[in-house]
Amino acid sequence: MTKYEVEEKTVEYLKTVFDPEIPVNVWDLGMIYKIDVKETAEPADGKDFDVDIDMTFTAPNCPAADFILEDIQQKLEGISAVKTVNVNVVFEPEWNKDMMSEEAKLDLGFM
Questions:
Q1: Which domain, by its residues, includes 23?
Q2: What is d(CA 50, CA 7) in angstroms, rounded to the nearest whole number?
C-alpha cells in the first residue's frame, strides 16, 4: 500500500466515525484538522506507515470524546499498512459550524 492509498483509506475510515449525539461523521463535521502519514522507522509485517491526526471536538467538554477517540484509534489501526496511530486533540483553532462540509450543513439544517 502506498502513502497516498493510506491517506485515502484514513479519510474513508474517518467518515465512518460518528459523534453519537450528532448524525454526521467527524470528517464532514470538520473536526479533523490534519492527517500526517509517515513511513515508519521500523516497518514490520507490511505495516509501513504511522498516522498522526490532529482533531478537535465541537465543544471542549464533549461527553463523547473518549468514545470518538477510541473509535478512530481502532478503525485506523485496522488499515493493513498502518503500524501506529496517534490522535492529538487540539482546540486551536476553535471549532465552528463553518468548518462543516456543505453536506453536513444540509443534513443538520444549517442551509
A1: 3-91
A2: 11
